[in-house]
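quick one, 67 residues, struct below
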Amino acid sequence: MSTDQKGPRILAHTFYAQLRASGYTPQQVIGIATELLDMVTDDLKSNAKQDVPPAASEVSPGFQPRV
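---
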């Protein structure tokens, strides 16, 4: 495993262990993970919208950027 993969894996393991030690159930941990993924998805969508040049919609009236 590369060093780039070890950091996130260690952080995830530590975060999970802390949540469980604090009394969170596996179902609650899944809820937290889901919320984190939703936040990342929203952030990616927001960044994707900013990356589309304004002239792109003028070139093709029905243009819809991929999200």
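The two ends are 30 Å apart (CA to CA).
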